[in-house]
Structure formats: structure tokens, C-alpha cells
Amino acid sequence: MKYLDEYRDPQLAKSLLNGLQRRGRDGRTMKFMEICGTHTVSIFRLGLRQLLPANIQLISGPGCPVCVTANEDIDRAVWLAQQPGVIIATFGDLLRVPGSSSSLHVERSRGADVRMVYASFDALQIARENPGRQVVFLGIGFETTAPTVAAAVRRAASEGLRNFSVFSAHKLLPPAMRALLEAKDQQLDGFLCPGHVSTVIGAAAYEEVVTRYHVPCVVTGFEALDLLQGITMLADQVEKGEAHVMNPYRRAVSWEGNLAARRLLDEIFEPVDSTWRGLGEIPRSGLKIRCRWKDYDAVNRFFMPRIEVKEHPGCRCGDVLRGMMTPLQCGLFRKVCTPQNPKGPCMVSSEGTCGAYYRYEH
Amino acid sequence: MESMTVQLDQGSGGRATHELVQDLFIQSFRNEYLLEMNDSALVNVGNGQIAMTTDSYVVDPVIFPGGNIGSLAVHGTVNDLAMRGARPLYMTAGFILEEGLSLETLGEIVSSMAAAAREANVFIVAGDTKVVPRGKADKIFINTSGVGVVPPGVRVGGQYAEPGDAVLINGTIGDHGMAVLCKREGLAFENEIRSDSASLNGLVEKMLEVCPQIHVLRDPTRGGVATTLNEIAEQSHVGIRLEEEALPVREDVAGACEILGLDPLYVANEGKVLVFVPARCMKSVLRVMRDHPLGRNACKIGETVSNDAGRVFLRTRIGGHRLLDMLRGEQLPRIC
């Protein structure tokens, strides 16, 4: 904890908070969006939103990989789980997300072999131990997670594993930022850019957002001082009418990112148009396994039928993901949509905005 | 989408377990003892009161740093009795064994169970053994029952917390859950994290000697400190305020939680007790706790208040406040 405690210093935090309080005096409202689920949870766990002046608003965006996964992809994962001889390996958060008519959690209780793993390499081990069965790893996550999945594909190939494949629902964050700004239904004054994703793509990845849309971007870590410094830097830029990429999280994020991870991503995956819950189809915002590695692509290995997708009537996860409303404004929130019986992914995921409001807000 | 089958998180010790117990078992078995929702029931026998409890142990792995399923079964049952202020006396033990379990492992489990019983001064007076075919159980399940006597004048239960009580704990939180998780998932840190599994009856006895007016004793097992405090807040209709700065967490446990994205407040403990005492007794209780080997790191972590009945709040290090809810579902490591 030696290298963490110094970023949690209460005295320094208070002095940064005092500085932010002074900015509220001209009455101008600033809306900053965090586009990382871990940021969302940190902000709630710190009780940070109540400590900021009323004119600095933090809005949670599409930063939770589970939440942005389209209903259609959940339905296809459920279909895969129902196939005889298939073992599904997935991150735990995905288990409870409801699709059109079922979830992986429900399928597991009905007898499907759905196993929770902590990493894609755990799925490889399951494949090695079950040579007579097909193991499908559900690949969800942003640029942070995708390289490890790419590494698993390469390892499976080098070992000649014939019973391992990936159902890729990976997403790329910068295209989603562009889509949010293009939509123009939300006036944002700056982005708290994701710490984890940025370790891979680098701070340079946000240059286009800054130059094209003149919206400040600050790459931010997850501790109290990281977040307060990030917000302060965004507020400084707004006050001066400037827009730059700033990277105070240099202890983890470089300008160009992790080149080895980026090369690996590029080797295994190619960008494709992808459907995001709430944001619709965004050009080149998803990752598809390249043709060369098609033996490891579950979409290629299984003939998936077309599934009729049904959204829960009244579920407003899409609007929450775009920052158009808070969960408190959703008619289902806390009444029929709870973590025990979630109607949408933002309630079920540990990084989801609705779940965070449910767990941490008064 | 309503699911009509039992789900895993209904056994996680959090909100889902709480609701299953309330909606099904309590409704069906309804009686004044169960309705109290305490770790053990106090029943009248002759002129005195005895405490009765039962529990089942299904831990994976069955042997972990700091203990095994056998010692855990004794500690858990003894603690369920001690949490009502009772002096544990007798236990029963039922074993469900999976075909293929090594006799060496079974021997190790039983011998540490015997040692734990001796240490806690309880007798295992009856038992039962069943063997099921391979795959029908996970190595070994143990079910226990326990009885103990309640000394006259002691009235301890989750429903007796009062506004103004100090909330104390006897040491660091999350040790057991992280020891088991690290062992199960093969996670190695610089120092091996060890379970805190221990019988707390000796410590409780000392505390009750200096302060018979202790209102609540509760061991924060599955669901962790946060879930247990929520249960007490609901039972006693009080609000609870915790201070994040005061929460004792071992550095290695905090580090492991940090890496996995877990909150130690929701991680299981097996040798910890939450104590609600009138503020005037706090110093004397803390003193005897710190004098006991199982209470060296005892401290105050919060207090009860009359507003926000049934809810628990945490004041964060930077001065913010947040709701501290029961565990919902299972605590899962984050994805990114």
C-alpha cells in the first residue's frame, strides 16, 4: 500500500477540494464525464460528488464494459451456453446481465456449464482439461482486457488447442467518445479519461477528440488525489477556454501507451462497426478476430441463429449510459429494478452506474 | 425475468440469503425464537436459559492457511453461541463425505477439529457420517449443532443496539475470506495471508465480566462487516455511522483486495466480533479486548445513531459520506 496511501492523503484532498469550491463563484456549470466504470465506483466510494461545488457535475458515461454490451450479444452468449458439450468461461459480472429472455446465471442454474474465470488464460486451462468439449470464452471489455484475450488466442494456436474459441464483444473507447460528442444531445465540458484503458492506448489516443471537438481530456487515476487533480485540470482548462490532453497519471500511462499490447491487439483483432447499448451502432468501435485466426472465433465455429432481441420495456440503461439521466430519474430504479432482480445491465454490473447509485447513494 | 430456481448468491450470506431466509424459512417455521434472527436461539430450560445453534460448512479449499474445514466448523459453532453471551458446552458433528476423499485429509480435518474443541473447552458429543458418490458433494461437508448456557443477567442480541452505542471490533477485517480466496485461486503474495479462524468464547467471557451490559455481539462471517452491521441496524432500528479511517485492515489483505477490486468490508471473517456497548463502557471493554490474544488490535470503528434507522453509513477518508449496503450477489473481481 506504500504507493497508494500517498494518493489518498486526506489533507491534500481537502486542499484540492477547497480549490474547487472557489471555482463555483461565477455560477458557470461544468459537466465532466467519467468514461470508466472503475472511476464511477471510486467517485461513489469516496463520496466525492457531494463534496464538489454544485456547479461542477460529474456524469457517468459508457465506461462499464458489461453495461455497454448489446442485448443481442447477451442473447448469443445465452444461446452458446445452451449448446450441448459447450463450456462457457466468463467474467462473473456478465453472469447476471439479463438478455431478451434469460441470463447466463439462469442458464447455469438450469444445467448449463458456465464457469466464472478471472482471466482469459483460466479459460485456456479449462480447454486443456476438457479436450472432448468446446470452451468458449466470452470476450468483453475495452482496450485493457482485449490484449490478454489476444494473448490467449495466440497461446491456444501455439499449443494447437482445437476446443477453445472466443466470442468477441470487445469495445474501443475513443469511438464512443466521438459518438457522444457527435450526438450533440449532451453538452460536455470535459472527459476524465480512463486510467486502465489509457495504459494500453496512451494519452495520445485522445488528441483527435480534443482537436476535433475542442473538449478537454485528462487521463486520471483512481485514488482521491488522482480524481481531484483530474477535475481541477479540467476546470482550469474550461475557465481558460482551452482544450488539451493532459496526463497527470504518468505513473501508469505514457503518451504512446503500451506498444507491445497494441501490436498484439492489432495482430489478433481488427476494428469493426459495433452496437453499443444506448449508443447504437458506432463505426469501427468493436473488435473482431482477424480471418487468419478464425479457428478461434466462436462466431465462425458455431452457426448462430438469428435471435429476436427484446429490450425490457421501461429500461433506461441506454439514457443512463449516455449521461442523459441519472438512475434516480428512471421509473424502474429501486422499485422493480434491483441488484437482486436487475432489468438492465447498469444495475447488475459492479461498475454500472445504477448499481453504484443503489449501493452508495443515500 | 423471474428465475424459479435456487441461485448461488442465495448462499453468499448477503441480501439474497437474508431474503431467502426471511421469505421462505422464517415464514414457514415462524416462531418467536427464529424471528429474532440471531446467531443462536435462547430457549428456557428449567430455571435457566440455553443457547442453541446449527451451521453447515462447505468451504473450498477444505484446507487453507490458518485452518481447515474442521477447525472452522468448531470455531463457527462456538462463536454462534458466544455471540449470545453463552458459554459453549456441547457440539454435534455430521459429516457428508464424497467418495474418493483421501483418508489422510479426513484425518487432518478431524484432528484439528478435536484440537479446536479442546481449546474452546467444548465436547463433541454426537455425530453422524454419510458417504455420497463422487461428484455428489465437494470432498467434505460438515454440519454442526451446539448448545451453551447463558449466565444470569446477560442479555445480548442483534435487537438490543441503542443510539449512542460505540461499535468496536477485535482486530483486522477480511483475513479469512482473502486467505481462502488466495488459496483457491492460486494467488501468491509476498506474505501468505492467513485466516483469522478462532473461537471467541474466551474473549467474550472477559468482555462480559467488565461490562455485562454489552448490547450486541456478532461475528461478521460471510457478507463481511458491512452486511452484519446492516442486519444489526435492521434488527435494532438504529442507524450506524462508520469511520473509514478507523477500519483496521492488514496491509497484505488491503493490497490483495486492491488488486482484485474487492472491498474488505464485504469479505468474510471467522475470528472477529463486532461489539455494541454503551459509550460509558467503551474504554473498559477495549482494555480487556486488547489484553486478550484475539483482541490486540481492538478499536472503535463507529457508533449508532437514532436517525437513518436500519441503514449504515461510512464517512470516507476525504470527508464524504456513502451508504454501506448489505452484500448483493457475490463480490466479484472487476473486469478492467
TrEMBL record, chain A:
Cited Gene3D superfamilies: 6.10.20.100, HypD, alpha/beta domain 1
BP terms from Gene Ontology: protein maturation
Keywords: Iron, Metal-binding
Molecular function as annotated in GO: 4 iron, 4 sulfur cluster binding; carbon monoxide binding; iron ion binding
InterPro entries: Hyd_form_HypD, HypD_1, HypD_2_sf
Family recorded in the similarity comment: Belongs to the HypD family.
Protein name, UniProt field: Hydrogenase expression/formation protein
UniProt source species: Desulforhabdus amnigena
UniProtKB/TrEMBL annotation, chain B:
Residue ranges of every copy of the PurM-like N-terminal domain listed in the record: 38-150
Domain called PurM-like C-terminal: residue spans: 162-313
SUPFAM superfamilies with a match to the protein in the record: PurM C-terminal domain-like (SSF56042), PurM N-terminal domain-like (SSF55326)
Gene3D superfamilies assigned: PurM-like C-terminal domain, PurM-like, N-terminal domain
Pfam families registered for this protein in UniProt: AIRS, AIRS_C
InterPro entries in alphabetical order: HypE, PurM-like_C_dom, PurM-like_C_sf, PurM-like_N, PurM-like_N_sf
GO BP field: protein maturation
Family: Belongs to the HypE family.
Identification of the protein by name: Hydrogenase expression/formation protein HypE
Organism this protein belongs to: Desulforhabdus amnigena
